[in-house]
Amino acid sequence: MDEASGTNAAARDGVVSSVRSPEDATRRQMLAPFFALAAWIVPGLGHLALGRWGRALIFFLSVGGLAISGYLLRGNVFPPRSGDVFDTLGFLADASTGIFYILSRFFERAGPDVSRAAGDYGTRFIAAAGIVNLLNVFDAYEIALGRRTM
Amino acid sequence: MRISHFWAMSLFALLVSLALAGLTKRTALERAKYAASCFLKFLAVGIAIGWLMYPFSH
C-alpha cells in the first residue's frame, strides 16, 4: 500500500494523528514497546495513543465485555502461583487481560463456582478475553513499527 | 449471573466477532459486515456441533 492510500485508509478509520513525517515514524518505532505495554495494561489504550480510536474502543469493549461477563458467570481466575502447568497457562491467559485481571476481585467477590456450567463458561470467557487482548497488544506494536498500515 | 447456554454462546460469539472485525477490517461498514458474518457463522457452527453431539447425550 502506498503512502497516499494508507493515509486515506487511516482517515476512514478515524485516525487522529497518523504518521506525518519520518521523524514521527522513528519516534513511534522507538516507543513501540510502550504502546504495546499500554495496550496490555488497558485494552485499547495503545491504539488510542496511536490515534486509532475506533479500534481502541472496539478492543476495550470486547476485552472488557468478555472479562466482566466471565467474572459475573463466576469463572475461575487463576492465581499467579500454582504447581500445575495448566493453571499456569490459565494465569497467563487471565493476566493478559491487563487491568481487568486486577478488577476480578471487584466483580467476582463471591469467588469462582465451576460446579455449574455457567462458571465453566466464565473461565473460558476470561481466557478468551486475555487472548483477544494479546492480539490487541501485537496489533498496537505492529502499527507503531509501521508494519501494519490497515 | 444466570444465563442459558444459548445466550452464553451468543454473547461470546458477539464479543469475539467484534474483536476480529476490529482487527481485520478498516471501515465501519466493512467491520459491521464482517462482525455480522462472523457472528452468524459462530452460531451456525455452534448449533451444528450441538446437534452432532446430541445422540451421545442419551
Give your account of this protein's structure:
The complex is a heterodimer of chains A (150) and B (58). Chain A has 150 residues and is an all-alpha fold. Helix content of chain A is 69%, strand content 0%. Chain A contains 8 helices and no strands. Chain B has a domain of 32 residues. Helix content of chain B is 79%, strand content 0%. The mean pLDDT of chain B is 93. At the A-B interface, helix 4 and helix 8 of A face helix 1 of B.
What would you report as the Rg of chain B, rounded to the nearest angstrom? 14 Å
Strand content of chain A: under 5%
What gap, in angstroms, lies between the N and C termini of chain B? 28 Å
Q: Quick check: average pLDDT of chain A? A: 85
Order of helices and strands of chain B: HH
What's the overall geometry of chain A? elongated
Total domain units of chain A = 1
Largest pleated sheet of chain B: none
Report the span from N to C terminus of chain A.
Answer: 9 Å
Helix % of chain A is 55-70%
Mean pLDDT of chain B: 93
Structural class of chain A: mainly alpha
The number of helical elements of chain B comes to 2
Low-confidence stretches of chain A: 1-12
Principal-axis shape of chain B? elongated
Major beta sheet summary of chain A: none
Number of strands of chain A: 0
Strand segment tally of chain B: 0
Oligomer: heterodimer
